[in-house]
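Board notes, transcribed. Complex of a protein with zinc ion.
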Amino acid sequence: MSTLRQDPTTRQWVILAPKRADRPHVPVWDARPPLPEYDPSCPFCPDHEDQTPPEVLRVPAEGDWTIRVVPNLYAALGASGPADRAETGWFREAQGVGAHEVVIESRRHDARLDEMTPDEVGGVLRVWRDRYRQLRARPGVRDAVLFKNFGRLAGTSLLHPHSQIVATPVLLPRLQRRLGVATRYFEDTGHCVYDDMVSAERDAGVRIVHDEGPFVAFERFASQDPFETMIVPTLTQSSFGQTDDELLPSLGRTLIKALGAIRGACSDPDFNLIVFSGPANRETEEVFRWHVRILPKLSTPAGFELGSGTSINTVPPEDAALMLREALRTVAS
Ligand SMILES: [Zn+2]
């Protein structure tokens, strides 16, 4: 029979229905074709720097770049100045103030985070952190989301390895909900819900994928989607902007393990990776931890999910974690 589980970080319920995985179905994706190291038609490949808007960051500053950050040519937001709201009768709108940047993660067209070294991924994470800090500090910006779309099903239009940051003049509902739930949990218990979740998952053990000490990758008890994987710091940090240089390779290693395990266990699926980060201040540090969610595109939300806001997960997270740990053992051997 199916069961329902509640996510303590959002208070949302998920339906675990493993039986539904037995339905007749066709795979939603084809095998990923290998990419060339260099693509002459790719605007993110070296020697095509004039095909992107002028870069806002280049690493290293001199010589051949390894990472570039550029404004998105098709930016969702990008105006500067105050995000003044205008009311026309009953209707309200505001200027598209904010930023939409692209982090080009490597010179190589065929690079992948799960094939890079922890130091290389640490370098990408450093750029994410630095741009996140800069954009969050910008006047008129109230929230920001950092994400990576990998593969067509995840919404990417360019295959060259890249991620994005969007800074918004309005608060983002998904993040605000998590902050609200975490605040209520703290008022009820005096604890941070994320710290309690990590320690409960460590005690249970069955859903841990990789435990690096400062960062833990695991399948949540109430995973919304099959193989949804979460990385949470065990440090007192509410904002991704607080991550320390010396711990970035460790975070990089955790990310490589999580992505490599998903690749191995799920036949290299497309995925979305999202960094949820709160603001950096004492109040949020008590209640909230920044965290990473990796969502492999193994199913498509249909009428029930869209109508209810409730997921049906067909793979119990304990089974998913077992398969992910198995995939890591295979990669290591
Ligand atoms: Zn390219």
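The domain at 12-21+38-77+95-332 is CATH 3.30.428.10 (HIT family, subunit A). Residues 39, 42, 44-45, 109, 160 surround zinc ion (CB under 6 Å).
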